[in-house]
Amino acid sequence: MPSVEKIAPAAYEALDPRVETLVNELIGRVADKWTMLLLEALEEHGTCRFTRLSQLVPGISQKMLTQTLRAMERDGLVDRKVHPVVPPKVEYSLTGLGQSLGEAFCGVWLWAEANLDRVEASRTAFDTRE
Amino acid sequence: MPSVEKIAPAAYEALDPRVETLVNELIGRVADKWTMLLLEALEEHGTCRFTRLSQLVPGISQKMLTQTLRAMERDGLVDRKVHPVVPPKVEYSLTGLGQSLGEAFCGVWLWAEANLDRVEASRTAFDTRE
DNA sequence: GTGCCTACTTTCCTTTGGAGAGTATGGGAT
DNA sequence: ATCCCATACTCTCCAAAGGAAAGTAGGCAC
């Protein structure tokens, strides 16, 4: 089981605090529930429109959908294509950068899928201990 | 570049909606800024006490530190060992499950490290477009 | 005119999160 | 005996984030 250090020892140890801070900020931005869920939806279904995305990501409010998509666009993760027609038509898709982040998150999805039961068991054990 | 489907096609396609909902909930719980940062801190520094963790994770409030650690303990990600001495001494460490999640997040750290510049560039481009 | 369509905004209100002070405990210093 | 300290919280108060629902724009069908 490799750790970050074992995979990229030199790069990791060589980080100066300034870069580490930036990485932490980026992680804080990107390690967000809605961002992850949107990344997954766009990865799985390809180009989507606003309403479609709101259906694909259950529980997201329009406000958060707009907000998260904008932030992802600003970060270069999604491409936003506006067709100047009426009624409005806006298509969202992953950029190469977004796809690579989606792949980076792949391990987390697999982990969640594989360990659902363990987490569930731990929770009930914890709750009955109280 | 493998996608989720290519790595685990059968398991992924076979998910019934109920399981997918649970996975989404688990992702929502775990894809949290503080959880990721704590996971990283514990992975890198091993067993730590409360005050140490608050120093290792810059910007976290005591409230969020307590809260996040409790949630992680409940999910079986961290082990909380209380030594009944005075002043109090509580040691936190990753469980096997926590370590495996830390490894799953490894790709995201590497991605962030590798793509900091691209994201930064995209942001300034976006901001000057406005 | 009325209503419809879509992608947002806006408003209002609840929940979450941060800052800082307070708590409990016994041991060591004075 | 009294004071102070260390540690891991816990509480209170306030600001910020987030959700629900209604509103907006503007061309088109009726």
Summarize this, please?
Chain A has 130 residues and is mainly α. Chain A has seven helices and three strands; from the N terminus they run H-H-H-H-E-H-H-E-E-H.
Helix tally of chain A equals 7
Largest interface: A-B, 57 and 58 residues
Class of secondary structure makeup of chain A: mainly alpha
Indicate the low-confidence ranges of chain A by residue numbers. Answer: 2-9
Series of H and E elements of chain A: HHHHEHHEEH
Q: From the alpha carbons, calculate the radius of gyration of chain A and give it in angstroms.
A: 18 Å
User: What's the domain count of chain A?
Assistant: 2
Oligomer: homodimer
Main beta sheet of chain A, described? 3 strands, antiparallel
Level-2 CATH architecture of the largest domain in chain A: Orthogonal Bundle
Explain what you see.
2 copies of one chain form a homodimer. Chain A is mainly alpha-helical and 130 residues long. Chain A folds into 2 domains: 31 residues; 97 residues, Winged helix-like DNA-binding domain superfamily/Winged helix DNA-binding domain (Arc Repressor Mutant, subunit A), CATH 1.10.10. Chain A has 7 helices and 3 strands; from the N terminus they run H-H-H-H-E-H-H-E-E-H. In chain A, helix 4 crosses helix 7. The longest helix of chain A is centred in the C-terminal third of the chain and has 34 residues. The radius of gyration of chain A is 18 Å and the shape is globular. The two termini of chain A are 34 Å apart. At the A-B interface, helix 1, helix 3, helix 4 and helix 7 of A face helix 1, helix 3, helix 4 and helix 7 of B. Chain A binds a DNA duplex (30 and 30 nucleotides) through helix 6.
